[in-house]
Every structure is written in structure tokens, then in C-alpha cells.
Design brief:
By secondary structure, the protein is mainly beta. It has helices at about 10-20, 100-105, 130-150; strands at about 45-60, 65-75, 80-95, 95-100, 110, 160, 170, 175-180, 185-190, 195-205, 230-235, 240-255, 265-280, 290-305. It is built from three helices and 14 strands.
């Protein structure tokens, strides 16, 4: 006889079993928000035009002005690194057009925000007519490229301090020696997604170790409460040299596009405060009494409307 055995299980035990084998709810891990960093997204063949305005005053004298125009074309190396070819096309000083010599008209400045591109000051002795816009524009590019190399996130308040301290030279023409040394203090001060821009504040400050050996012993004495980080010697006439030591600082603000990282505009306040002497020999040992001097330079770089 076949017998069927019915096992009666109380309802409350069925519920208990169901609860015992129920899988726990899956809780997704918190989302990782990746903040994009400072980065330039280049397009080969892209053309940008800029105007650089300079206001320069020395020891309280009336300010001199210069306005320089340039066209930058994006190119790509065989290794995939992008760079910009800048041609300085016009310079006006104190409202007057300056006729650029052929060497300056034909010169092409190479700049890039690509961390794989090595920025450098070109030989300025034969292109001194455009030395100022060349070196001034280079400061903005080196600020942004450094921010990109450090991976600085594009988020308001993000900050990085970079000890650099290596000398940069602007010698050329009558300037037989010119160099400074700085460290970098970089901060993202604003990110405006609605208007598609961010602002990087870049301070350049004197390094604790100064800027190498002074060109003469009397130039070693600090002119302020920080080590001298600026030296310059200019030749005036056959046997006159104007030599100085100073403390130099830069305060840059760069507005960049959130879409591709190109520079929309940039400003700079560059201050130099120090002492200078007039000397009658190249070793700078026969000099008159020192005198105080100050230099204030204000820059405005603007992308021209396309």
C-alpha cells in the first residue's frame, strides 16, 4: 500500500524559515567622485590670438606701457605631444608702433600646457625687441603646466606648494646678467561650471636658499627680510655697469576654460624691491654708493575674439 505522509508545518515556522534564508539587502558602495585636474585638451590646427598689455614703472616714475599681439597655432610632434607656435606680430610702446627687425618678425616661440613638453627661455640676444612678451607669456604657461604636472584638481580651495628655486635668465642685449629664482604656491580659487571657467592663483615667492652666487660680493647682502632672489647687471656705454640685487615676487591669476583648458585671460602683478649701484668696471668692484629702487610690472593677457 502506498502511503502518503503529509508533514504539517505550522505557518509561523514557514515564516521563520523564509526569514532565515532571505538575502541581506545589497548596499552599493559610495560613489567615487573623480575631480578633473588642470589639463589642456589640444586640437591640432587650432588657432588662438592674444593681446598682452604691460604697464611698467620704476621707483615711482611715470608708467611706461606696451601692447603686443600674437597668433598661436597648435601643432603635434611625432611622439604625440602637442605644442603651440607663437608669432609676435606687433608691438606698441607708449602708444607708438615699433618696427620689429626681421629676426623678431621671423621668430617663433614654442609654448605648451602639455606636461610632456619642456618649457624654456629662448636665446634673447637677437630678438630683444620681443623679449618682454616672450618671457611674460612664458610665466603664465609655466604656472599652468606645473599645476597640470602636479595633478592639481580643478576644485575651489585645492592647493599645492612646489619648491623649485632654480634660476631663470633673461640676459640679452644690454643686460649682461639677469636671473631670478622662485618657489610656486598654486591655488584653485574659483570653478564656475555655469560660465565654463576656473581660476588658478599662482604666487611666486623667494626660496630660502636665495638664487645662487651673487655677481659681486656686495650684492650678497639681503636687501629685505628674505634672501635676494633677483640679480641684474646692465651695461651702459663702454665701461659703465648698473648692478642690482632685489627681492622679487609674482602674483598671477589665470582664467582657463573648463572645456579644453586653454587660457582665456591672465593677470600678473610683479614687484621687485632692492638696491643698485653704478660701477665702472666689469667685476663690479669700483662702484658708487647704493641706492634703493623698485619695479612694478602689471600684465593683462587676453584672448582675442575669434
Amino acid at each position: 500500500m502506498n502511503r502518503k505522509i503529509f508533514l504539517l508545518i505550522p505557518a509561523f515556522l514557514l515564516g521563520a524559515c523564509a526569514r532565515a534564508v532571505k538575502e541581506p539587502p545589497v548596499i552599493p558602495p559610495p560613489a567615487v567622485i573623480v575631480t578633473p585636474g588642470v589639463k589642456r585638451a589640444y586640437t591640432e590646427g587650432e588657432v588662438l590670438k592674444y593681446t598682452l598689455a604691460l604697464e611698467h614703472s620704476m621707483s615711482g616714475a611715470d608708467a611706461a606701457t606696451a601692447v603686443s599681439s600674437a597668433t598661436a597655432t597648435v601643432k603635434k610632434r611625432a611622439d604625440g605631444v602637442f605644442y603651440e607656435v607663437w608669432q609676435w606680430t606687433a608691438v606698441r610702446k607708449n602708444g607708438r608702433e615699433i618696427r620689429l627687425p626681421p629676426e623678431s618678425r621671423d621668430f617663433r616661440q614654442l609654448l605648451s600646457l602639455d606636461p610632456g613638453f619642456k618649457l624654456a627661455i629662448p636665446e634673447l640676444s637677437k630678438i630683444y625687441a620681443i623679449a618682454e612678451p616672450i618671457t611674460d607669456t612664458l610665466t603664465f604657461y609655466s604656472d599652468l603646466q606645473l599645476a597640470a604636472r602636479t595633478g592639481l584638481p580643478l576644485k575651489a580651495g585645492e592647493h599645492v606648494f612646489v619648491e623649485h628655486g632654480l634660476p631663470s635668465s633673461w640676459a640679452g642685449g644690454a643686460t649682461v646678467l639677469g636671473r631670478d629664482c622662485v618657489n610656486f604656491d598654486l591655488t584653485v580659487t574659483e570653478v564656475n561650471a555655469a560660465e565654463n571657467y576656473a581660476v588658478l592663483k599662482a604666487l611666486r615667492v623667494p626660496p630660502a636658499q636665495g638664487c645662487g652666487a651673487a655677481p659681486a660680493a656686495w650684492l650678497e647682502k639681503p636687501v629685505s627680510d628674505t634672501p635676494n632672489n633677483w640679480y641684474q647687471v646692465r651695461k651702459e656705454g663702454k665701461s659703465t655697469y648698473i648692478a642690482g640685487a632685489a627681492t622679487e615676487t609674482f602674483d598671477d591669476e589665470i582664467k582657463l576654460s573648463l572645456s579644453d583648458g586653454h587660457i582665456i585671460s591672465a593677470t600678473q602683478l610683479n614687484r621687485v624691491s632692492g638696491e643698485t649701484r653704478t660701477c665702472t668696471d666689469e667685476p663690479l668692484t669700483k662702484c658708487n654708493a647704493p641706492g634703493k629702487f623698485s619695479i612694478v610690472r602689471k600684465l593683462l593677457l587676453l584672448q582675442d575674439p575669434q
